[in-house]
Amino acid sequence: MTLFSLARKNIARNLSQYFIYIASMVFSIIIYFTFVTLKYSDAVAEQTASSQKLGSLMSGAAVILIFFVAIFIAYSNSFFMKKRKKEVALYALLGVRNRQIGFMLFFENLLLGLVSLVVGILLGFLCSKGFMTILIYLMGYDVIAPFTFSGSAALNTSIVFLIIFLVTSFQGYRLIYQFKLIDLFHASKKGEAAPKPSMIVAFLGIFLIVIGYWLAMQDLFTSKVWEKIGFLMTALIILTTVIAGTFLLFHSVTGFVLAVIKKNEKWLWKGLHLMTVSQLLYRIRGNARTLTVIAVLSATTVTAGGAVYGLYYNANDQVMTVDPNTFMYQQTDAKSDHQVTAVLPDTKYDENVEALSITFNTKELSEESAFDNSDKKIYTVIDERTYNKLADVQGKEALHVNHGKAVILDIGYDKRFSPEYKDKTIRTENNTAITFQSFKTQTVLNAKTAGIAVVVSNDQFKSLQKEGEALNYRAIGVDQASVDLSEKISKQIPEEALFSSAPQDFQASIESVGSLLFIGSFLGLVFLAATGSIIYFKVLTEAEEDKSQYNMLHKMGVNAKEMRKSIASQVFVIFFVPLAVGLLHSAVALKAFSGLLMMNLAKPVLIWMIAYTIIYGLYYILTVASYNRIITQNNKTEG
User: Could you tell me the pTM of the whole model?
Assistant: First the structure.
C-alpha cells in the first residue's frame, strides 16, 4: 500500500469529521473564484457604469480573502494535526519512518486541498450566474447575467490556493519532527493550565474595553483627544485596548463569574451543573486566545457588513433629501421646455418656479462655521408661496415666514460644523438685512440645481427682485421614473441648465454601495463560516477528550437527557459568549459610525445582526448534534 493510497483511505474514513473543514474551504474557493470571475467578466462591464472601479474593489476583496483563508486553513489544520498526534505516534511505534509519516500527512492535506479546489471551482462556475445576477440587482440593474467560465479566473484561483495548500501540507509534514514520541501519545491530555481568578485582571480587562469604547464614541472631528493623539494613533489605541480587554475578559472576567457561580452549592449539585461549570471554567479561560479571535472576527464582520448595509438601506432616503423633485433644471429657452414636455410621460406635478440668485454678506455666519470662512455666499431665494406649493405636492409641511425674516434650507446641516442659523442676520450687497427665524434640513428644490435655498415672505421676495438675478426653474414629479427617461430629458436641454435627476443620482449611489454590499456580504459569510468552523473543530476535539468522562457518567446511571443538556449548555456558552461580546463591540463601532455620518443605522444594523446570529446559531445546532453523536456512539461501544 502506497503512502498516497493510505492518505486517501484516511480521508475516506474520517470524512464526517473533515466535512465542515472541506465545506468551509470549498465556500472560500467559490467566493474567491466568483470575485475573480466578476473582475474579468465582460457581462458586468457592459452593464455597469463603474466597471473599472468594480474591478478594483473585487481585486482588493480577493486579497483580503486570500489573507484570511490562509490563516483559517492553517488554524484549522493545526486542530486536525493535534487530533492526529496519537495516530502519528502509533505509526512511529510500528516502525514507520518519520519521513514516510510526514509524506503521508503531506499527501493527505494536499489531497483534501485539491478535492476542495476542484469542487470549489466547479460550484463557483455553476453559481457564477446567480452571484452575477445578485451583484447586478444590488447595483440597481434589472438584467439576468449569463453563464460564464473564465479560464483566467480558474488559473488565478488554482495558483493561489495550491500555494496555500502546499504551505499547510508542509505544516503537516513537519509535525512528526516537532515532537517526541511520548508527547504525541499524550497530546490529547495536554491543555493550558486554567489560571486562578484575579480581581485585578478582571477589572483591567473591563477598564481596557471601556477606554476603547470611550475613545470610539468621541467625535472624530471635534474631539480634543483625537486631535492631540492623531487619527492613526487613536484608532490603533482603540483596537489594542478592545482586543487586549477582550482577551482578559475571557481569561479572567468570565472565569471569575463562573467561579462565583460555582460557590452556589444549592444550585451546583443539581443535575450535571458541577461538571458543566467546571469544564466551562477550564475551557473558557484556557482557550481565551481562540475566543478572543472569534469575538474580534464577529465584531469585524458585523461592523463592516452593518455599516455597508446601513448605507444601502438609506440610499433612497438620502437621494430623496437631495432631490425632492424627480427632475429639475433651470429654464433657458421655450424650445427646450417643449422638447422636454414631448418626452415626458404622465406627471404628478410640473411646476415653474420663480427664484432669485442673490449674493449675501455672511460674516456673522462664517464666524461660527468650522470649515467655511468666506464672508460672501450665493443663495437661491424663493418666496413662501412657492415653497408651500412645492411642499404640498411633495408631502411636506407648510411654512410661514415673518416679514424681514427667512428660513434657510440646508440639507447638509451638521451641528458640529454648521453655524447656528437662528437669529443670525445676513445682508445683501445693498445692505438689506434678513434674519433667520429658523432652519430646515430638508428642501423643496434639488440641491444640485439650486444649491442652498432661502425662503422669505412674499412681500420680501418682491422687494429683493431688484437685488438679485432672476431664475426660472422647472420642477417635475414623475411616478416610477427611469434612468432612460432621465437621459432622454437631459438630451433636450443645454448643459448650463444644471439638470438634476433623482433616478440618475439613485442609480449612481446604489451602484457604488451595492457593489460594496455584495463584497461585504460574501466576505462576511466566509468569515462567519470560518468562525463557526473554528469553534466546531475545537468543540469536537474536546468531545473526543470528554468521551471517557461521559462514559463514566453513563455507567453511573446518568440518563442521556441530562448529558445532552450539559453538552448543550457548555457549547452554548462557548458559541454565544464570544458572539455577545463581538456584537457589543460592533454596536459601539456602528454607533460611532452613524454619529460620524449623521445617519440613523439602527434598523439596518439590527437586521444584519439578527441574520448573522441566525446563521451562527445553525453552526451551534450542528456542533451540539455532532458532539452528542460522538458521546452516544462511544457509550454504545464502551457499554
Answer: 0.72
